[in-house]
Design goal:
Family: Belongs to the short-chain dehydrogenases/reductases (SDR) family.
Number of domains: 1
CATH architecture: 3-Layer(aba) Sandwich
Helix content: 25-40%
CATH class: Alpha Beta
Organism: Dyella soli
Order of helices and strands: EHEEHEHEHEHHE
Pfam families: adh_short_C2
Number of strands: 7
Mean pLDDT: 94
Largest sheet: 7 strands, parallel
Protein name: SDR family oxidoreductase
InterPro entries: NAD(P)-bd_dom_sf (IPR036291), SDR_fam (IPR002347)
CATH topology: Rossmann fold
């Protein structure tokens, strides 16, 4: 086991931004532990896949066991797993509420708590969470109360944890995207979604990946909510 090679944990890693992050960290010679409900085994010996719901504490514990037993350390955690349920507030069901809380907040809590405990031991580490610019700038016609409530919670937790762990070698940041061109958005919706951004187009997966990589290397940055949203949070 080469304990000197850095290790990243990435949730929501089977497609879209998560899959892009796995490739990017491997390109930088990180070993990766990749999680999602539907993730398949990897042929790369430096990528461990752990299938399961990140909202389940046992899944988070399994991710950490695999990371430490196979790779011996954890340097970066990217909380990318998340769901977005766009409905008028009064039509949300209790199941909608439970699902958003489970993935966006409970999943974050379990894996981040376990990862930070290990980072604290080694006096170094970085947590970065993917949130949403809708937290800062709600858009008429895009109902997003559950996203704003849960992702806003991640923004608040990011700042609180950044201060709590600043003197212990652990940095905590977030990337706050606009609408990103991923498999979640059908091509016929792209024109409408592009219009939500002052720059007039959707973001690309690479935009979010680049932001995460920047924060991972920015040793003097912690407690930052980095907006990658085509100007959406600045105004319209």
């Amino acid at each position: 086991m080469n304990k000197q090679q850095k290790v990243a944990i990435i949730t929501g890693a089977s497609q879209g931004i998560g899959a892009g992050l796995v490739r990017a960290f491997r390109d930088r010679n990180y070993r990766v532990v990749a999680n999602s409900r539907s993730i398949k085994p990897s042929n790369d010996p430096d990528v461990i896949t752990v299938a399961g719901d990140i909202a389940d504490r046992a899944v988070a514990e399994r991710i950490m066991v695999e990371a430490l037993s196979r790779f011996g350390r954890v340097d970066t955690l990217v909380n990318n797993a998340g769901i977005f349920t766009a409905k008028p507030f009064t039509t949300y069901t209790t199941q909608d509420y439970a699902n958003n809380i489970a993935v966006n907040l409970t999943g974050f809590f379990h894996i981040t708590q376990l990862a930070v405990a290990e980072m604290e031991k080694q006096r170094s580490g970085h947590v970065v969470s993917i949130t949403s610019s809708l937290v800062d700038h709600a858009i008429d016609g895009v109902p997003s109360v559950l996203a704003s409530m849960t992702k806003g919670g991640l923004n608040a937790a990011t700042k609180s944890m950044a201060i709590e762990y600043a003197k212990r070698g652990v940095r905590v940041n977030a990337v706050s995207p606009g609408v990103i061109k991923t498999p979640l958005h059908a091509p016929e919706t792209h024109d409408v979604l592009a219009s939500l951004h002052p720059v007039g187009h959707m973001g690309e997966i690479a935009d979010i990946v680049d932001a995460v990589l920047f924060l991972d290397e920015a040793r003097f940055v912690t407690g930052e909510i980095l907006h990658v949203d085509g100007g959406q949070s600045a105004g319209h």
